[in-house]
Specification:
This protein is mainly beta. Helices cover 5% and strands 40% of the residues. It has one helix and 28 strands. The strands form seven sheets. A four-stranded antiparallel β-sheet has the order 1-2-3-4, with no helix packed on it. The protein has a four-stranded antiparallel β-sheet with strand order 5-6-7-8, with no helix packed on it.
Length: 336
């Protein structure tokens, strides 16, 4: 009996510790290590110029993966809030974070926070864009501010005469996008989208063919067409003249779409509320749900890093797509 016990103990130690380092392609989470999620909800994913992967969460601030380990930044470290809704990097290498308590700039060592008292339109910040000229734009719950590196300037969007959901403030800007021509697009929570060409505004709503007036995200595909996701009305594709709308009836999976991402292969991905991830190859929609390894079907963020890896922020944690299915990446990995 004693000999059997020694043999079993030896086998367990060999299995747990290994006799040689695991190959990179074999990195996986052993079954005896608890799966502790990075956060309950990954709202945004962003890769900085140094290759660090930043994960914006709903309640845990922002988390950085540097290829070796995870580092969390919260109010304790100087971040403006714990709910991070957008991330961007300016031309000097500073990282900017939009939170419910203002916007924070991180220079690699310390955080500097800006709020309404500094000229920000509202402390509840939702979106950030660094344009080609280096101007930083912030979308908030009460409008837009632009920052030239020294001061904030209010940037009022045109008033739009459309009916809007009383649950949402139409001044709220959920996303800001710069197209190939340098025009800026502002996605609002009830007033459609407004395009600023440097001289004036053009606003698009359901009256012009847009799927819905609550616009969550703007993305350009490989051909230059713009895609707009909406809350409750599917997505619209804009070719510069007309809108083409896709909904559940066309195979979209859900009419509630948060983020849109176009990968380097030309596929357009949609993060849905309640119906998993959806991929559009230009002809057909493919939906990925539990059968492909997803544990929760609510997705709010999709990101392709410089190596071509696709990352998905779920209600339930971080996932990586390996071309066929989804792998849950926890605090213990697997990252590769």
């Amino acid at each position: 009996m004693r000999l059997l016990y020694i043999l079993l103990l030896s086998l367990l130690l060999t299995t747990a510790c290994g006799t040689e380092p695991a190959k990179e392609s074999d990195q996986s989470v052993p079954s005896f290590i608890p799966k502790v999620q990075i956060s309950a909800y990954i709202r945004r994913i962003y890769e900085d110029k140094k290759g660090n992967l930043w994960l914006a969460t709903t309640n845990d601030g922002v988390c950085r993966y540097d290829g070796k380990g995870l580092t969390y930044f919260t109010k304790k470290e100087g971040l403006a809030g714990v709910c991070v809704k957008a991330i961007a990097e300016d031309k000097s290498g500073n990282l900017w974070f939009a939170t419910e308590g203002g916007v924070s700039k991180y220079d690699g060592k310390t955080f500097t926070t800006f709020r309404m008292k500094d000229g920000l339109a509202d402390n509840d910040a939702w979106s950030i864009l660094v344009d080609k000229a280096g101007i930083i734009w912030f979308g908030t719950a009460a409008g837009v501010s632009r920052y030239d590196g020294a001061t904030f300037t209010a940037f009022p969007l045109p008033a739009v005469n459309v009916e809007h959901d009383p649950k949402y403030d139409p001044r709220q800007v959920w996303d800001i996008f710069e197209d190939k021509d340098g025009s800026l697009w502002f996605a609002t929570a009830g007033a459609g989208v407004s395009r600023y060409d440097g001289k004036g505004f053009t606003t698009y709503t359901t009256n012009n063919g847009l799927a819905g007036n609550k616009v969550c995200w703007i993305e350009a595909d490989k051909s230059g067409k713009l895609w707009f996701s909406t809350r409750g009305n599917g997505v619209s594709r804009y070719d510069g003249k007309t809108f083409t709308t896709f909904t559940e009836k066309d195979g979209l999976g859900s009419n509630n779409i948060w983020e849109i991402m176009c990968d380097r292969a030309g596929n357009v991905w949609f993060a849905t509320s309640g119906h998993g991830a959806v991929r559009y190859d230009g002809k057909t929609f493919t939906t990925f749900t539990e059968q492909e390894g997803i544990t929760q079907n609510n997705i709010q963020s999709i990101y392709e890093d410089r190596t071509g890896k696709l990352w998905f922020g779920f209600s339930g944690g971080l996932f990586r797509f390996d071309g066929k299915g989804f792998i849950n990446v926890t605090k213990n990995g697997p990252w590769e």
